[in-house]
Write a structure and sequence with these properties.
By secondary structure, this protein is α/β, with parallel strands linked by helices. The chain has a single domain, classed as Glycosidases (TIM Barrel). 42% of the residues lie in helices and 17% in strands. It has 15 helices and twelve strands. The strands form two sheets. Strands 3-4-5-6-7-8-10-11 form an eight-stranded parallel barrel, surrounded by five helices. A two-stranded antiparallel sheet has the order 1-2. Strand 10 (278-289), helix 13 (294-313) and strand 11 (317-322) form a beta-alpha-beta unit. Helix 8 (148-165) packs parallel to helix 10. It is globular. The two termini are 24 Å apart. The relative contact order is 0.16. Bound molecules: ligand 9MR.
Length: 377
Amino acid sequence: MSLRLRAGLITTAVVGAGAVILAQGAAFASVPATPPAAPGHQTSAPADSLRSLASRVGLRIGTAVNTDALASDSDYRSIAATQFSTVTPENVMKWDTIEPTQGAYNWAPADQLVAFAQQNGQLVRGHTLVWHNQLPAWLTAAAPSMTPDQLRAVLKKHITDEVTHFKGKIWQWDVVNEAFNDDGTLRDSIWLQKLGPGYIADAFRWAHAADPKALLFYNDYNIEFTGPKSNAAYSLVQQLKAQGVPIDGVGFQTHLDTQYGLPDLQNNLQRFSALGLKVAETEVDVRTTLPVTAVEQNAQVGGYTSTLQACLAVRDCISYTVWGFGDGYSWVPAVFAGEGAADIYDENLQPKAEYTALQQTLALAAGAQQRGGGDRH
Ligand code: 9MR
């Protein structure tokens, strides 16, 4: 198999089982001491950091950030600053944090993360404007008795106020998050119940009006696998494009579990990008049952390697983001009993083989691109 970059077909021995062996056993590919910094970047990131390597192939590599850990854990802060070129607030741009009491905004936690990103030459993925989860209690209590017009006005105000507050500071916004069920039907959220499916197009239009330069994304999980959900998301964004709705991209969350195998992600990224959309992997992690065996960790390494390769192989895949980087801060154990170890650093923030796999995959792509030239932007 080969890795296709803009320069053309470049044959590398980095796919599948070979990648697992390479990532764990091979010496690190040679990296020039002073790679060119990406435009606008002022960073002391080492040449073999993920962000330095990714910048050599024009890819942004990101992480979700837990702002409590950022404030309290200096090792966490250092890794967040030096390894990644984009950040996504894991929770602090969600509606329940932003507007805990109706009309009283709490911007400070997200403002602090945006400031951190600016200090470290990082871009920000805004997450997320319209979702069925993490809504403020005042809204879930009031929504059932609101008229559609009242609820539409509340949603429009939320989107307009939040996007306006961060105007000019957000690279990509996850405008609508997780609107589908796994069978491809629309999720029965308060938005669908009261506003009908048109809430999705409206959300994109309102976000665009508030910040015309931000890239606007539809974001979901399990659309990495071809099937009813991926097909439904495809039909949705195809219709939105046809109707002139301002959508720029689709985010593939990519929460994998070793027991379910690998998705046909590259094909899915490719077919969405063929609609004239950018694509991104937005929340990558690869969980497994605990304790982790060598076989399971090999599968996790394969999961990280192949998902990054899929992004590298599709020119319109503009960013690859992990959903946190340290197992000690992962959302997984609280949601999936008996599972975990989903991240690229362990509980002590020591890099795991999963980290090395990403590093190695980027180094190989950078080496290939150096020979062939080209850029994904
Ligand atoms: O990682 C987030 C966790 O801290 C929150 O408790 C949880 C609440 O729903 O949301 C997690 O992040 C989710 C993201 O916003 C959307 N995709 C799925 C992520 C993992 O659940």
